[in-house]
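User: what does the whole thing look like in 3D?
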Amino acid sequence: MAVSETRHGKLRTWLDQRIGLADLEKLARKKQVPVHRHGLWYYFGGMTLFLFVVQVATGILLLLYYRPSAEEAYESIQFLMAEVEFGWLIRSIHAWSANLMILALFVHLFSVLLLKAYRPPREVTWLSGMALLGVALAFEFTGYLLPWNELAYFATKVSTETTGAIPLVGRFLLRLLRGGDEVTGATLTRFYGIHVAVLPALVTLALGLHLYLVHKHGMSVPPGVEREDAPRFMPFVPNFLLRDVVGWLSAVAILAALAAFLPAELGKKADPFAPAPVGIKPEWYFVFMFQTLKYLPGHILGIEGEIVGVVGFGLGGVLLLLTPFLDRRAVRGEPSPLFTLIGIALIVYVLALTYLGYTASPTK
Amino acid sequence: MGAARPTMPALLFAAIVGWAVPATAQPTRQAEGCVACHLETGDDRLVKPAKAFAGDIHAAKGFGCVACHGGDAKQQGMEAMDRAQGYVGKPDRQQVVQVCGRCHADARFMKQYNPSLRVDQVIEYATSVHGRRLRELNDPKVAVCTSCHPAHSIKPPSDPTSSVHPLRVVDTCGTCHADAKYMTGYRIPTDQLSKYKTSVHWKTMSAKSDLSAPTCNKCHGNHGAAPPGVSWVGTVCGQCHTVMAELFTKSPHAKVFAAMGVPGCVTCHESHAIQEAGDEMLGLRDKAVCASCHSASDKAGKSAAEMRALIDSLRNESDKARAILRQAEHAGMDVSQAQFDLNEAKGALVKARAAVHAFAVDAVKKETDAGLGVSAKAHARGVRALRELQFRRAGLVVFLVIIVALIAALVLKIRQLERRQQSRTGG
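Assistant: Here's the predicted 3D structure for the full assembly of 791 residues, as structure tokens:
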């Protein structure tokens, strides 16, 4: 004990005796990360988590100035951007980091999908990850309205209208989301509450479970690599963690550059009586769905096209969620080219429709 | 020139016109008989009115032919046109005013159909140049009711196809007033229509679809049409341009112009070809209207030049402030509050331009000083925003250098660490 105290200092010993620092250190040292040609994709989970931490930190700072009402929301952000020292930086980083987080999340999702990391015993890890995707999209969706500007107002109006197309419960969901029949100040207060209280609680649960399971099962080695050769490993601390930090620092640099050169715009204050601006579209990660709905005919087999689209996306989401249980070959450790193909097709579809969403005429 | 108030002869005229109670003017649906024969005649003069009347406001309200032409509505043949039954046939020009006035001058009667419609058209008409010439000279060319409201196809002014819809009034008046041959003998110009169509008023009405913009009747009156008198042109323009008219009335020019016998507003702004007033009209330079009477050597000329300089400086300073704020905005800076505040300078410029009509430097200076103060503040905020932008970019460079250095240090650290680990496992 005396030797340990001399080596680590009294505070460390004091903490160790109370919270078991040595056990944690042992745990961290024990954790290993496989090293192979697909190792790059391992970093995107950590990158998503880092950007989420940035979101939490900047979000808390924004809370100090933001006032969640239709009368004051826009003005409070205007004040923050123009008058508060570094207010522009905090808001711009929050806005850009949100986008980069979704991007990192999608890369993480598709890499897990293509590398079949959802195989047993990681089914629940996949499910918790999908829950996190849902929560992240909900964060983006609710946060987008908060500045109460023209673009946010009409984009929310369009997106919530799409919710109304869900059979049976659509109307109820629409009213529940909007807090009435229209997008009003009640919607804003509602979205604010969901953004800063409900979703953080959900994310804490889902993220806690996800991280616990990642730690419990370790990083998945892709079946191809597994079949070829037994992979090498590197210690998580410090080798992998230091590499993570390099990625995070690069993300910080990108965020700073984006905030300095392309600060988050505020635009005009929302005016419910004004006509919707031409070519209004949702945030980029929802554009592929938005564009798909535009291409659907008015009626498919006698059912309204939009309803077919919304139900189709719902089914697609359920199928994606159930992938670990549907991909039986992967469960048996056999190659499953069909699911690889579906994954690639999904990526191509999302990219192509997003591209069309930004290049095709707004009326098509 | 007579006053606009109805004169005794006018009242008498109105009384004669309006004496008869519109007994025959009750809504009747007898028209089929008249129309059937008129359509059969094949004579265009008789067919056209019968056909056109279906779209007439009077037909829509249930009036038939006898309401204006008299006769016996109960008869189906030629007997209907019995002069003993009050049949008048085609009313002559004097009769037209009487026929229309029988109903339109009767407030009680008109209330049944359109309570908001004025009933003083006949009285007004009697005061107009048209009415006076008809009454006094029995002039066969002057306008009567049907000249502007074509008989058998009369439509309310709100109907875009009506001859008296705001967009069509000018052409209706122009039918006679732009016809040099027709107007021979009246010794008045016939270029009003072509001039008006170059004016800011017509552009506002036709291009911007602002039907409240003035057309002929807004300045000249419709039923009481007459040219505004030299001394009261300002009152006519002042119906809309109230501030300018009020300032002008109190200005030294009001008295001088009256003494010289020249009209107010139109001396500088023209009458029919009124163009959008610009700053170039003020001062002593090229297009300045002041220069037609004043020069740099007289006191008023100097004042005009001074007022122009004040307005120019406010316009330039406000433009400068707007440009720098726009530059900052394009660079991504939030300057919306400063841009909003700068609107006050725009307001000051508008007020200063109006104040010119007081023809006093102090009145203009009071407005321009306020605007210049606002512009200076907005410009300073633009400069501050651009400085802040420079600071951000410089800060970014420093930050990136630190980040790159940290990354480089980390990469070196990782390499060193792994080399050490390798040598340890190798050893």
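In plain terms: The two ends of chain B are 123 Å apart (CA to CA). The first helix of chain B runs from residue 8 to 18.
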